[in-house]
Amino acid sequence: MTVLTGLGVTLPVDEGLSAGQYLDLARLAEDAGCTDVLVGEVAGPEVFAMLGMIAASTSRIRLGSGIVGVYPRTAVLTAMGFTTLASLAPGRVLAGLGASSPIIVEQWHGLGFDAPRARIEEYVAALRSVFRGERTDLDGAHVRSHGFRAAMAPVDVPILVAAMNPRMLRVAGAVADVAFLTWTPPEEYGPKIALVREGAAAAGRDPDEVGIAASFWAYAGDRVEEARERLRRFVLQYAMVPTHRPSFRASFAGLDAAAEAWAAGDRKAALGLVDDDAVDAMCALGSGEDVAHRVDALRAAGVDLPIALTPGAVPGDPEGPAQTITRMATTGVPR
What span, in angstroms and rounded, lies between the C-alpha atoms of 16 and 320? Predict the structure, then answer.
């Protein structure tokens, strides 16, 4: 498997934009020279419907989920979705998987958030079996399927596994084509990438064959100060998710105090503890050159595919993401 390189964009799917507006951003990313566009699945567009629109409306850019959770859909159903996309856009589809979070899995979907690492391993094995055109014979603790075979041609779809914490980083190294990291300043990537390589070696794989992708918040629009305040809220929101919190510890000095205020219901006090240093550690904010510098720093840290998550200055703002994509690509895309 060739390691994926380039410069990607994750559509800001929590913006409250329409499917047409997200599609416009994906087309803009392709026109700007970005190599990849990813679509997350939180509470905005359904990922396969959105990716289908993008696949039908673009010709070059790679497209994938960033991420699709492994709990709400069976592995076979997810494999069918990616196989369908790959039949329309061969060589351009990426399968980004992740465990998501207990809030989304348990509270939103009403499912149990059990054994995420073992589930990921079994889920990836199931996808690979379907992608190869095999009849399934899987009887894992978490993923079971017998006798299914996709009624479409086999496909070559790289699998990205989202990972933040040490054990999942090793799992990504063991089973994924690409480890998809996030919420990490450039100077903290070295140890995390080392864990990915460790997991690959322990599984008998060549560690250098596992690619590294990494996403980061980016804003290079005209409303920088408004965007800073919005990104401050994003840093707090994600840092308060228990499964995500360790990723923020080194760069968020007030993390523990903020967590106490958050647990007590004092959101204002918690937000006041997110200083500018924490925002700047997690976010590339300013001009297109500022975002490009973050891209360069990630590449220097060992990231093959930097991916910018491009929110607007306020919810429902399509101009900020468009400006960020255009200005970032002008200086950040390898030529």
Answer: 14
Sequence-ordered list of residues with C-beta below 8 angstroms from that of 20, at least 6 positions apart, any chain = none
Cβ(237)–Cβ(315) below 8 Å: no
Distance in angstroms (rounded) separating the CA atoms of residues 51 and 110: 25
CA distance 57 to 51: 10
Token look-up 């990291």 returns 181
DSSP classification of residue 66: S
Instruction: Give mean pLDDT in consecutive 10-residue pieces for the chain, a chain of 335 residues.
Output: 88 94 98 97 95 98 97 97 98 96 89 94 98 97 96 97 96 98 95 98 97 98 97 96 90 95 96 97 96 97 98 95 94 58
Q: What count of other Cβ atoms lies within 10 Å of the Cβ of residue 152? A: 13
Q: Which H helix or E strand runs over 93? A: strand 93-98
Taking the C-alpha atoms of residue 312 and residue 231, their distance in angstroms, rounded to an integer, is 9
Query: Do 325 and 34 form a contact (C-beta atoms < 8 A)?
Result: yes
295 vs 292: CA distance, rounded Å = 5
Beta bridge partners of 138: 145
Identify which of 217, 295, 278 has the alpha carbon closest to the alpha carbon of residue 40: 217
The β-bridge relationship of strands 68-69 and 159-162 is unpaired
Statement: the pTM of the whole predicted model exceeds 0.90: yes
